[in-house]
Structure formats: C-alpha cells, structure tokens
Amino acid sequence: MYKLILAMILFLFSELTYSQIDVGNGGNVVECKSAQRGSVNISLLDFVESRVRYSLNVESNSELSINQYLQSFIQTIEKVSHSKAKIYQKWLDQFLNEAQWLENSQINPSNDAIYPFVPNQCRVVQVVLQKKPYFPNEARYYIDHQVWKKLDIMTRAALMTHEVILRDLMESTNDIAPVVSVSTKTRYLNSLIWSGKILAFEKAKLVSLLTEMIGFHEIEISGIQVQRFNSQHFFNQIKNDQQFEAIIKKDTLQSIDLAGDQFEFANGGIAKFDQNYNLKSLLIYGPVRHRNKQHDWVSSPVHQFVEVNTDNQVLKISDQNLPFNDFSIFQGKQIDFWSFDKDKTEVNYLNDKYVCGADNCISIESESERGVLKIDVTLKPHTRYKISIGIRGTKTVDTLYFKVIDSLTAEKIIKNKYKNGFPNIDGGFGVFRNYSDHFVTTEGSHYAIVFDVRGGMKKKMLLVHSIKLEEDQDGSF
Questions:
Q1: Which of 35, 139, 142, 288 sits a CA distance of 20 to 30 A from 337?
Q2: ∠ at Cα 390 (388, 393), nearest 5°?
Q3: At what angle do helices 182-195 and 153-172 cross, to 10 degrees?
Q4: Is 31 helix (H, G, I), strand (E, B) or coil?
Q5: What is the distance between the alpha carbons of residues 323 and 475, in angstroms, rounded to a whole number?
Q6: What is the CATH number for 396?
Q7: CA atoms of 409 and 55, how far apart (whole Å)
Q8: Can you tell me the distance from the alpha carbon of 162 to that of 172, in angstroms, rounded to the nearest whole number?
C-alpha cells in the first residue's frame, strides 16, 4: 500500500512538473454566439476581462492595418520605456518567423487557463501557445490557424503584443508563488497599453505598478535602465531620508540625455531618486563618455558623479571613483577581502540579504592571516581632507592598519594602527568604533584607502558601517 501511494505521488509530481515546464502559456480569445443572428463574435480575452474587471476600454479602428496597430502599440511603450520599446519591436518583427501554424490540431488549454470573467453564452478559446524553444528548429509560438483566420486585424495585433509582453514577464520575473499569475499580469498590462491609460499614470504610480505589481526586474526611469536592488526590494531606501537608490544596469551600453548633457557608459552604477522617483544624482562607473553644447565627446576612465535638479538639468559633474560623502552607495554590497598575496578585490551586490541585516553595512572577510582591501579614489591635489570610518570587528581580528596612500608614489599619507579595538560581546560582533583623521594630498590626484586586517585565525570579518571623505574647511586638527 505504501509503495502504491508513493508511486501515485511521484506520478502526480511528474505530471505537475511537466505542465509547469513544458506546456507553456497561452494567448486567448472569447468566442460569443449571437442568439438572434446565429453569428459569432470573437474578442481578445485581455480586453473582455479588463473591461469587466478594471473598467478599461480599448477602442478599435477598422481602417488601420496590422502594422499600424503594432506601431501605435510601440509608440505608446516608447513613451514609458525606450529599452522595452526596442526589444518589443524586435520580438514583433521576429514573431511570424518563430511561429508554427497548426492546421489540423487544437491547442489544449495551458496551465494558466483560469478565467474568472467570461460572459454568458461565451467560451474561451486558446489561439496561441508560447513556450521557450528547447530543441533545434522548435517554434516559440504555436498558433491555431483555423481560429486565427476568423480574427479581425486588431485582435491579431493584440494577440501578438500579448505574447511579447508574456515573453518579457516569463524572462524577467521569477515569482515562485505569485499572488497574481503571469498571464493575468500580461492581460492587464496589454490592455493598459492598448487603452493608452498607462500614459496617464504619475511617475511614482507607474514605478510601483511595474516593480511591485507586475514584478519586472528591470525598468527605465528618466531614460536610465535600472534593475532590482535585491530579491526583496527593487529600491534601497536610504535611512532617515525619503530617497531611493537603484542599481544601474551594467553590461549594456546606455546613452542618456539630461537636458542637453549626454552620457554613454556600459559598466552600470547607482541612481538616486527622491520620494516621487525624480532623479537626484548618478554615480556612473567608468569609463564614461560625456558631451554637451560646450564640448564634443570627452572620455573619462574614472567614475562620474552627476548631480541634477528637478528638471534633470546637470548641476555638477565630478570625477571620482567613489563619492565618499554619501555612504549609501555601499548599502547592500558585499566586498570580498582577499589574502595579502592576491591582487584582487571584488564588489558584489547581495541578491537576497544584507550581511548585517538592518545595519546595512558591508563586510570585509579574509580567509588568510592577513588581508588587504584597497579602494581607489580621485582627490584634488594639495587639498586638506577629513576621513571618518565607522567599523566593527570580530574576535578573530587582532589588528587593523588603516592607510591612505598616494597611488603614484606609494607614499603613506596617513597610517594608523588600531590594536585590540574590537571587544567582542557574547560571541557576536564587536562594539561599534569610529575613527577619524585628517590629511593633505600631494601633487597627484589618485589615492587609495586601504584596510589591512591581521589576525591569528584563518576566518575573520570586519564590518564597515560608514565611510565619509570630505574636504576639511576649517583646517583645524
């Protein structure tokens, strides 16, 4: 009996797994028969559901061709996101080449086929089945040709846009147990775009819709492609401040225009927004190209810190590797601390949690008895600076050497030694310590902030809560 039950469970699990992985998702229409005339009226399920459920009405225009309908859709998307419009246009151009027409086959309803709003005397018919190709020459879209031929031009175009939105959501969201299914989100977003109502959303409401309700991992704000901060939150909210940070997408050439100041870069960075998601500043990781009315393209190998006003006009551009007057750029990052004989430092965003929980600190870890972390910065020559650091350590850290070094001459401008500075509490992290110092730069512009941690045990951790580097105006020690 036990073996029989186990076999049944395994069989049901295999069937569920197959339906989740292999069956795919569909595009559907609602077919209604007229009792008086005996005719059949066919409408896109997205529009039928949205009219009843969300009071969204989509107007048709029989004079438009399918390409004109699709172009109108892309133009609406472009006003929300240039990057989405570009990829959707590409997928629509490829749609028919990636489709297989089913002449003598019907599509069995896919596992997402739950429709709570179907009018009386009507039935839902699946027209398109989409699944990611696995084998060579396998189609992405399977279309019931007999039903397709019955559709008007607008419904055909809207089915195609449904499929590209669905594809985007399947590739860029990973909800394990979503409150609302991907197909429901697709139908709503498709109707919202076709109705034009998406253009009436205020920026904050639109951002909330795309990141929280729809669940995109990447969106565009003020022409900047940004991506989810971690698995729990799209944005990182700065403590005691109504400002938000997002990661600028890297490995993608971005070209942004801020009221005439144009920037090109591909290594990402950090974008900061106010509570209404208006851009406040950018930290663009170098190399960066910049031009405006005063000069043509100028390339900079180092990071650029850009401040803007509410009209996206550039107020200030500074060359620096890190704007240390604002520690928030470190929040949610993990810095791996390599052993002394390895010339390597990596900075990685955490995907699912902060190392220090609510403290939002960074961790520096070493697997050897000694480790060195070097952070490069660009400073003004012959200028007096004040540097402050707030740190904790563990009992495995015996000594911290903290230095600021001229990268050109390797001259140590300041070198402080903090021994036994991290008393341990109940085996947990040590108490908080704050250290500060002043220094004057030399002829050069390139410097390094160095944490040199030493201890008798192999595994050690230093927690950096704050770093502040600023020009010292009063000149007093």
A1: 288
A2: 140
A3: 130
A4: strand
A5: 21
A6: 2.60.120.260
A7: 69
A8: 15
pLDDT of residue 206: 94
Q: Choose one of 319, 343, 373: the last residue of a domain.
A: 319
Q: At what angle do helices 45-53 and 153-172 cross, to 10 degrees?
A: 80
Give the burial class of 66: count Cβ atoms within 10 A of its Cβ; 0-12 exposed, 13-18 middle, 19 or more buried: middle
Same domain, 68 and 151: yes
Structural domain includes residue 16: no
Tell whether 260 and 402 lie within a shared domain: no
Structural domain includes residue 84: yes
In a domain, residue 170? The reply is yes
What's the pLDDT at 285?
Answer: 81
Instruction: Quickly tell me which residue has 């990052």 as its tokens.
Output: 333
Q: Are residues 100 and 240 in the same domain?
A: no
What is the pLDDT averaged over residues 174-178? 51
Instruction: Compute CA 68 distance to the chain's CA centroid, rounded to the nearest angstrom.
Output: 32
In a domain, 116, yes or no: yes
Please state the rounded mean pLDDT for residues 193-204: 94
Instruction: Please return the burial class of 169, using the count of CB atoms within 10 Å of its CB with bins 0-12, 13-18 and 19+.
Output: buried
What pLDDT, on a 0 to 100 scale, did the predictor assign at position 326?
Answer: 38
Are 416 and 460 contained in the same domain? yes
Give the CA angle between residues 271, 273, 274 to the nearest 5°: 165
| Per-residue pLDDT tens digits for 390-430 | 666 555 666 777 778 887 777 777 776 655 444 443 344 45
**Interior/surface letters 283-314, b for 16+ CB within 10 angstroms, e for the rest:** bbbbebbbebeeeeeeebebbbbbbbeeebeb
Contacts of 177 (CB under 8 A, 6+ apart): none
Instruction: Give pLDDT tens digits for 88-97.
Output: 999 999 999 9
| Whole-number Å distance between alpha carbons of 382 and 389 | 22
279, HSE (Cβ side, Cα atoms, 13 Å) = 27
CA 373 to chain centre: 28
Say yes or no: 181 and 47 in one domain. yes
Domain count of the fold of the chain: 3
Same-domain check for residues 229 and 115? no
- Tens-place pLDDT, residues 293-324: 999 998 887 778 899 998 999 998 887 544 33
Give yes or no: residues 177 and 249 share one domain.
Answer: no
Handedness of CA 166, 172, 173, 174 (dihedral sign): positive
Tokens, residue 427 = 């085996």
Domain that holds residue 304: 217-319
Claim to verify: residue 193 and residue 53 sit in the same structural domain: yes
The DSSP code sequence of 150-164 is TS-HHHHHHHHHHHH
